[in-house]
Amino acid sequence: MRALRAYLSLRGKLLFRLLREIGVLRLALLLPVVVAALGRALVLAARHPVAQWAVPLLVAGQVAAMHRQRADLRFLATSAPHFRRWLAVEYGLVALPVAVALAGFHDWGAALLTVALAPWAALLPAARDNQRTRHRTRSQFRSEAFEWVSGLRAGGLWAWPVLLAGALWQHAAPLGPGAALLVWLLVLLACYGTPEPISMLVLAARTPRQFLRRRLGLGMGYAALTAAPFFWLLAVGPAGVAGTVAVAVFWLGLVALLILTKYAFYPNAVHIRTTQALVVGVALLLVAHPIYPVLLLVAVGGLIWQSQRRLRAVLGQAELSVES
Predict the structure, then answer these.
(1) Cα Rg for the chain, rounded, in angstroms?
(2) DSSP label at 207?
(3) CA distances from 316 to 248, 272, 309 (A)
(4) Where does the record place a coiled coil (predicted)?
(5) Least confident of 115-124, 268-277, 311-320
(6) Could you report how far apart the first and last alpha carbons of the chain are, in Å?
(7) Are 63 and 94 in contact (CB under 8 A)?
(8) What per-residue confidence (pLDDT) applies to 104?
(9) Based on the number of CB atoms within 10 Å of its own CB, is 247 exposed (0-12), middle (13-18) or buried (19 or more)?
(10) Considering the chain, what percentage of its residues have pLDDT values greater than 70?
(11) Which of 39, 48, 119, 157, by CA, is between 20 and 30 Å from 133?
């Protein structure tokens, strides 16, 4: 018990250090937006008799993806024989707020399932340790689209068919394909949240504008291809063709913003992820609001300018270091 308390205390200190790195101003903008967006989605799901059962699966999936990407699993395995029990307790605590929210809507079964499923992620191996699966699974994406190759191997490869099955199951209502598109966007958010090494950027980049054009073309092309079944289900359902076109433009615009945000704050992974979360949160809160198109135009223009500026600075520093 004492070792568990020490572990949880250490994790709390690491979380506090991460929050300090994010900064007070960024936190003041990020936390209210993300909490409001997640709360809105949770309230909609909790009130739906079927969607409430998707919440435990989504929480367990996110916890499992987070667990498999942890860098300290090997260290914990060699230094603490009972580390998986500690991880199970930690993941149960992570899922507890969601379970409490579901219980507030009297969704007792979904709340209990949320707390019961999340700790099982502690039994999964680290993603990088599963070398056989990596070599056996050949990616259907070009190696140049490395975000898609690595991201789908880390969990997106099984998430897409599961989401498609759920969307087909609930295709009669826009909520099914719409929720699948939202979760798929979160999967892409994880794919584009990790900056590649500077050496890869230098090899691929000619000019910042050409590099961004290529990254946007690959990213949005694959995003449109993988989201096409969900768009089709929306179009043949109550949303209709016009509503589906609006959703598709909105969704692909968010994918473009995620890509631009990655290079606007490259190579700081913390700033990239927090700003991407802020972008998605604001988009979900202000969708259908009259001020949203104005904010979207300002965000696109600012991120295009900042990403080119940042890439120009990074490439310039890389060239100087090579010359010296």
Answers:
(1) 21
(2) S
(3) 37, 21, 11
(4) none
(5) 311-320
(6) 54
(7) yes
(8) 92
(9) buried
(10) 91
(11) 119
The mean pLDDT of the chain is 83
pLDDT at 132 exceeding the cut of 50: no
- Which of 178, 239, 172, 171 minimizes the C-alpha distance to 41? 178
Residue 211 one-letter amino acid: F
Among all chains, which residue has been given the structure tokens 């200190």? Answer: 13
Q: How many CB atoms sit inside 10 A of residue 68's CB?
A: 18
Q: What is the per-residue pLDDT for 122?
A: 92
Could you tell me which of 221, 140, 144, 232 has the C-alpha nearest to residue 188? Answer: 221
What is d(CA 176, CA 167) in angstroms, rounded to the nearest whole number? 5
CA 84/CA 197 separation, integer angstroms: 31
List helix spans (H) across the chain. 2-22, 24-46, 54-68, 73-79, 83-104, 108-117, 131-136, 146-151, 157-169, 175-191, 198-204, 208-236, 240-264, 269-286, 292-323
The CA–CA distances, whole Å, from 60 to 99, 138, 173, 319 equal 12, 26, 25, 44
What would the two tokens of residue 301 be? 């223009």
- Residue of 217, 220, 216 lying closest to 264 (CA atoms): 216
Tell whether pTM > 0.85: no
Q: Which two tokens stand for residue 83?
A: 């580390």
Interaxial angle between packed helices 83-104 and 24-46, expressed in degrees from 0 to 180 and rounded to the nearest 10 = 60
Instruction: Name the token pair of 272.
Output: 């990239």
Question: Rounded to the nearest 5°, which phi and psi values hold at 237?
Answer: -100, -160
- Work out the percent of the chain whose per-residue pLDDT is above 90: 25
Reading the block at residue 170, the tokens are 């609930």
Place of tokens 């798929």: 184
CA gap 65, 8 in Å, rounded: 20
Amino acid letter, residue 279: V
pLDDT grade, residue 322 (50/70/90)? low
The larger pLDDT score, comparing residue 90 to residue 1, is at 90
